[in-house]
UniProtKB/TrEMBL annotation:
PANTHER family: PYRUVATE, PHOSPHATE DIKINASE REGULATORY PROTEIN 1, CHLOROPLASTIC. HAMAP family: PDRP. It catalyses: N(tele)-phospho-L-histidyl/L-threonyl-[pyruvate, phosphate dikinase] + ADP = N(tele)-phospho-L-histidyl/O-phospho-L-threonyl-[pyruvate, phosphate dikinase] + AMP + H(+); N(tele)-phospho-L-histidyl/O-phospho-L-threonyl-[pyruvate, phosphate dikinase] + phosphate + H(+) = N(tele)-phospho-L-histidyl/L-threonyl-[pyruvate, phosphate dikinase] + diphosphate. The lineage of its organism: Bacteria, Bacillati, Bacillota, Bacilli, Bacillales. ADP binds at G158, V159, S160, R161, T162, S163, K164, T165. Keywords: Kinase, Nucleotide-binding, Serine/threonine-protein kinase, Transferase. NCBIfam families: PRK05339.1. This is Putative pyruvate, phosphate dikinase regulatory protein. Bifunctional serine/threonine kinase and phosphorylase involved in the regulation of the pyruvate, phosphate dikinase (PPDK) by catalyzing its phosphorylation/dephosphorylation. InterPro entries: Kinase-pyrophosphorylase, PPDK_reg.
Length: 274
């Protein structure tokens, strides 16, 4: 490996996260920003629960060694001042993730911030709601118990490999109770799908080529023959025809997930139910 390539691998593909709490907010923002680039993904290192200058100096020193920047979220103004000073001393770029937004809110509504670290990580009602929603999603995943359809806030339906399970888990992390049910022509759809408001049901569909590719790769990963009926075009068309007719009868919103990320699809669903 050439020296320049080694330096890039060692230094240029790291991002340092600093927080006086867990650091999830900063990492989420950085990860979202990274998805806008085609370059190799960077590795993220967190410095969490920072309480003073020692941890800040350590984080900035590592950022300088790796020739990268620091993204930080501090509730305490003195920690922000330390970070700015330390970063300037080492020639490191430091990005305040939440500061400008907090300042804008405070200035607009004439209300000072609480300046308490870790508020997003407290064991509050929202936290326990997410835990309950995650347990719900696991319990009523993949049509294991159709009674979950009547209890769910969001119901996902679609043929196999249309991202129902990962979408359910993602929405559960947002605090929504989600049940998902696979549609196959051989199995009669549960009555619960016709007994709840259609606005709570979302049909997931996908382009034929996309789902054929996904199913073929799935078979290969399981060590099965790629020419099985599961990944055959005629079988997928049969399933889609059945699913489309059922979604039409239910009157639910249908979302094509072919070129959408889990986050994008979840955003559409959340916007719709709100």
């Amino acid at each position: 490996m050439a020296d320049t390539e080694w330096e890039e691998a060692e230094h240029g593909r790291w991002i340092i996260i600093c927080s006086d709490a867990v650091g999830e907010t900063a990492e989420a923002v950085v990860s979202a920003a990274l998805r806008q680039f085609e370059a190799r993904p960077a590795r993220i290192k967190r410095f969490s629960h920072i309480a003073g200058g020692r941890e800040i100096r350590e984080a900035v020193r590592e950022a300088a060694e790796r020739r990268t920047f620091v993204a930080y979220t501090f509730a305490q103004p003195e920690l922000t001042e330390m970070m700015i000073g330390e970063a300037a001393a080492h020639g490191v770029s430091a990005v305040d993730i939440m500061g400008p937004v907090i300042s804008a809110i405070s200035g607009t509504f004439h209300n000072p911030p609480l300046a308490r670290s870790g508020l997003e990580g407290r064991l509050n009602e929202a936290y326990f709601r997410r835990v309950e929603a995650m347990e719900f999603a696991v319990k009523y995943d993949d049509g294991r118990d159709s009674r979950g359809i009547g209890l769910a806030e969001i119901v996902l339906i679609g043929v196999s490999r249309t991202s129902k399970t990962p979408l359910s888990i993602y929405l559960a992390h947002k605090g929504y109770k989600v049940a998902n049910y696979p549609l196959t022509p051989e199995v009669q759809a549960p009555l619960e799908l016709f007994q709840i408001p259609s606005r709570r049901i979302f049909g997931l569909t996908m382009e034929l080529e996309s789902i054929l590719k996904i199913r073929t790769e799935r078979l290969r990963s399981l060590g099965l023959h790629a020419d099985a009926d599961y990944a055959a075009a005629h079988r997928v068309v049969e399933e889609f025809t059945y699913a489309e007719e059922l979604m039409r009868r239910i009157g639910c919103k249908v979302i094509d997930v072919s070129d959408k990320s889990i986050e994008e699809t979840a955003g559409l669903i959340i916007d719709f139910i709100r």
